User: Fold Bifunctional ligase/repressor BirA from Alkaliphilus pronyensis.
Amino acid sequence: MKNKILQELMDQQGQYISGEALAEKCKVSRTAIWKHINNLRKLGYIIETANKKGYRLLENNSLLLPAEIQKHLTTKEIGKNIIHFNSIDSTNSYAKGIADKTPSGTLIISEEQLSGRGRLGREWESPKGDGIWMTLILKPKFPPSEGGKLTQIAAASVWQGINKVLGLKSLIKWPNDIVINGKKVCGILTEMSAELNQLHYLIVGIGINVNNEAFHNTIADKATSLFLEKGEKINRRALLCEILNAFELLYDSFVKEGTLKESLNICRNNSAILGKEVIIQQGANQAKAKAVDITEEGLLEVLTEEGKKTEILTGEVSI
Ligand code: BTN
Assistant:
């Protein structure tokens, strides 16, 4: 019913429709209309009421509202259930709290995060309405050791989304960054809950700087946004839908075929580091090496200064 009322309001294209007319069209009482209108407002829709005129929906293209996103999804699992917030501490933290009782493919999205989390305990700047701050809850039936591969799938789908919607060539900096002109535009934080042999759930947090005009001076030299790179404001909704659609295709082929092939092709062909001399930071240890390949397992293969080939599971890589 909520969606039917929403559709009627949209059909008015910004003009008022009376409560009586809405009730008649939707075949419910005026009290029911009033209740549903309040629920739509809680979801973020801006609906004005005026005496004797009724209700009108204000143009609201800027929010990442579930019904608007779902209209453009071609997915079967990803984003079938979307929880949207105007403000939250962290979508990853919220996802952890509800993951046990939520279907796989659930998407948590917030217009801002008050305590957005990055890797290695860092903060993630998430100002209101500027970016895509989201988390996917996934429950694939594979062993916990496979969990890290989801980062490669997420990176490949963000790369595809940026490429298709904006025509911008970004690069993937293994394991979890997307960069443009050497500056970070997206970070991925994959977390999981598992026992020794059993995965309970995976939490894939993706933060994309979309329309940010500036960054805090502590990260200004390292961070950029799609707006700053493209020189025009970006439709967050179109980008988000493209990423989710791409994610499901890549994720599906991984779950069904058990290989990361398609995601790896994207990560290898658009890598910011392969073939380059890099510095690898792992805890307190730092080492120089040449980045050679990303393995079928999603690990980084490097050639050490001593000429030894070795595989790296995780770490901070800089050029
Ligand atoms: C990193 O590069 O360090 C990872 C950044 C991940 C940020 C995203 S924003 C949405 C989700 N919620 C969080 O608190 N963090 C991730």
Q: What stands out?
A: Residues 90-92, 113, 116-119, 122, 124, 126, 133-135, 176-177, 187-189, 205-207 surround biotin (CB under 6 Å).
